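Page 42, continued from yesterday. The earlier attempt failed because a stray header line got pasted into the input along with the sequence. Redoing it now with the clean sequence only.
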Amino acid sequence: MAWDVAVITQTDVVNALIYELGLYNGFSFMGLLQWAGAPFDENDIMKGDEEVPVCGRAMIFKEGMEREGTGRRKVRSNALRDEARKYFRAQDREGKLRYAVCDSTRADAIDSEIVELHHTEPVYDMGPNGRQINIAELNFEALLVPLCPTCHRIAHTQRPPLTVEQIVTLRSGLL
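This time it went through. Structure tokens are written below.
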């Protein structure tokens, strides 16, 4: 079965959405996303009238393209991570790296640990030079919390991030 593929522009898509939603007062593509409450990164949105192939009503988006650029990002310390993992394993009754909220460990069938160390002080608040941490004065439990990936995502649904207690309360209502 052959598909008829039409090519429309971003402007056509925006105009169709604006018309469908009954919004006629000069919304732009970015404005439409903001109006809808959609999280977005300007760099992930096609600019101008780039082509967007459409099969029927399903749009086909560009995904996984390589992009070069310069920018800044916060760098985590691998040494701090390794020391924290050792510390939390030593605190566990079975010597395992246990998730603080779920109170479980990785499945035995999985070879690698799937754990994320959540900073109790958000990394985005640490300033451009980060923070120096002296290992002799380090309180791992005050600085980092081992979380499963799901709980870590839940923690970062708000700014400031949710506490472990808030995640436990939230998850207990979901189960």
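Notes: The mean pLDDT is 75.
Reminder to self: strip header lines before submitting.
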